[in-house]
């Protein structure tokens, strides 16, 4: 019985694919979902065109130097669009291009209100060019206007051009354009009589002390040049040819009254030819801005003066001058540059001006040349009446 067992073949496995048949229940869920989406879409569309959500109120906050009319114009809501269609980001980006606007936020409050919150630039000085009184910020930007009493004048000036933009016709304002608001106009300043006499003397080198003439030399013009110190006295009284000519400082217009938002800011009168065409969006150079801020904030008591106030003028002939109001004396502070003659010498010049007024007497001083050399051995030129 030694026979072999027959070999067994492994059973073959057949893969079977399960066929899923469509479920009537799942098909119903899909139909319901599609229906709900259609309902929601219809609802959104209905809300988007519904007059119930039309913009009826635009509330503008924080504007002083910017008129509400230009804000509304930039928002472009004259056709009363639906509140859901307001592009708040785009509107904010357009508003910050207005001269006085530092930041802006546009928000929608349902059902029908748009709130615009604006933060304007902070004025540092009043910078007078011609008959326009601009306010300037810490960067030298001329961004707004005030009247003779310091009342802000809301401006309709449009957005400033972006860097590289071509000047365009319309509400946009380029830095070289002058914009005078139509809502209010500033009264023209009246001028005080020019100090006499006014002939211009022969020019001496800037920053150099004027040499004293020899008393015995014939034909020499006596110039009272002296180191400002106690115990010295000028050698001559007023010589008309020694007084440089200077245009009078405008007086304040007494017919313009200060309002609740009037600003009491220091003032600089810029009479330089290069700045005559500046308007909203223009920029004052950094050196002049800093020097103007230092001098315009000078109080009469700091120089032992009894003047009611001081006037600061910047022109092409003398640079910065400070004069007393009412008209009495003029102090020539000169020109400043970023490197050669920095305005950091101003405190020493102020000290010298005080010494001159105390030494000679404010009522006797006509003109003081404050030289650029502020070393211990420098000489200022004092011309007496």
Describe this structure in words.
This protein is of the alpha+beta class and 385 residues long. Among the domains are: 52-120, Roll (Ubiquitin-like (UB roll)), CATH 3.10.20; 199-242 and 285-384, no CATH class. The protein has 5 helices and 16 strands. The strands form 3 sheets. An 11-stranded mixed sheet has the order 7-6-5-4-11-12-13-14-15-16-9, with helices on one face. The chain has a 3-stranded mixed sheet with strand order 1-3-2. Strands 8-10 form a two-stranded antiparallel sheet. The longest helix is centred in the N-terminal third of the chain and has 26 residues, at 24-49. Mean pLDDT is 75; it is low at 43-49 and 167-236.
List the topology elements.
Elements: H1 24-49, E1 57-61, H2 68-75, H3 88-95, E2 101-109, E3 113-120, E4 125-129, E5 132-136, E6 142-146, E7 152-153, E8 190-191, E9 225-226, E10 250-251, E11 267-270, H4 286-296, E12 309-315, E13 319-325, E14 330-334, H5 346-360, E15 365-369, E16 380-384
> Which spans have pLDDT < 50 for at least 5 consecutive residues?
43-49, 167-236
Mean pLDDT over the full residue set: 75
Instruction: List SSEs in N-to-C order.
Output: HEHHEEEEEEEEEEHEEEHEE
Shape descriptor? elongated
Structural class: alpha+beta
Could you tell me how far the N terminus lies from the C terminus, measured between alpha carbons in angstroms?
157 Å
Main β-sheet description: 11 strands, mixed
CA-atom Rg in angstroms: 37 Å
* Helical residues, percent: 10-25%
Q: What percentage of the residues does DSSP assign to strands (E)? A: 15-25%
Tally the beta strands: 16
Number of helices: 5
Sequence of strands across the biggest β-sheet: 7-6-5-4-11-12-13-14-15-16-9
């Amino acid at each position: 019985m030694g026979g072999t067992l027959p070999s067994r073949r492994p059973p073959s496995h057949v893969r079977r694919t399960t066929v899923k048949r469509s479920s009537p229940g799942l098909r119903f869920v899909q139909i319901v979902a599609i229906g709900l989406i259609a309902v929601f879409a219809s609802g959104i569309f209905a809300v988007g065109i519904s007059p119930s959500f039309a913009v009826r109120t635009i509330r503008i906050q924080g504007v002083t130097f910017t008129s509400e009319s230009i804000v509304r114009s930039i928002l472009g809501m004259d056709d009363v669009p639906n509140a859901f269609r307001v592009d708040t980001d785009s509107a904010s980006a357009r508003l910050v291009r207005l001269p006085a606007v530092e930041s802006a936020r546009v928000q929608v409050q349902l059902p029908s209100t748009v709130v615009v919150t604006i933060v304007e630039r902070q004025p540092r000085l009043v910078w007078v060019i011609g008959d326009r009184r601009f306010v300037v910020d810490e960067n030298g930007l001329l961004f707004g206007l005030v009247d003779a009493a310091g009342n802000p004048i809301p401006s309709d000036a449009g957005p400033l051009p972006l860097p590289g933009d071509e000047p365009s016709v319309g509400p946009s304002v380029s830095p070289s354009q002058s914009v005078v608001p139509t809502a209010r106009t500033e009264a023209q300043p009246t001028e005080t009589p020019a100090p006499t006499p006014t002939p211009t003397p022969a020019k001496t080198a800037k920053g150099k002390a004027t040499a004293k003439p020899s008393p015995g030399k014939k034909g020499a013009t006596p110039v009272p040049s002296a180191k400002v110190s106690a115990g010295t006295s000028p050698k001559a009284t007023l010589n008309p040819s020694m007084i440089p000519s200077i245009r009078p400082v405008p007086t304040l217009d007494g017919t313009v009254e200060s309002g609740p938002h009037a600003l009491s800011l220091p003032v600089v009168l810029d009479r330089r030819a290069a700045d005559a065409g500046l308007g909203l969006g223009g920029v004052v150079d950094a050196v002049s801005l800093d020097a103007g801020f230092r001098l315009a904030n000078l109080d009469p008591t700091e120089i032992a003066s009894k003047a009611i106030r001081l006037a600061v003028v910047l022109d092409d002939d003398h640079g910065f001058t400070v004069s007393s109001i009412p008209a009495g004396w003029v102090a020539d502070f000169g020109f400043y540059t970023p490197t050669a003659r920095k305005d950091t010498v101003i405190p020493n010049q102020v000290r010298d001006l005080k010494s001159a007024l105390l030494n000679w007497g404010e009522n006797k001083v006509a003109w003081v040349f404050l030289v650029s050399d502020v070393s211990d051995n420098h000489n200022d030129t004092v011309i007496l009446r």
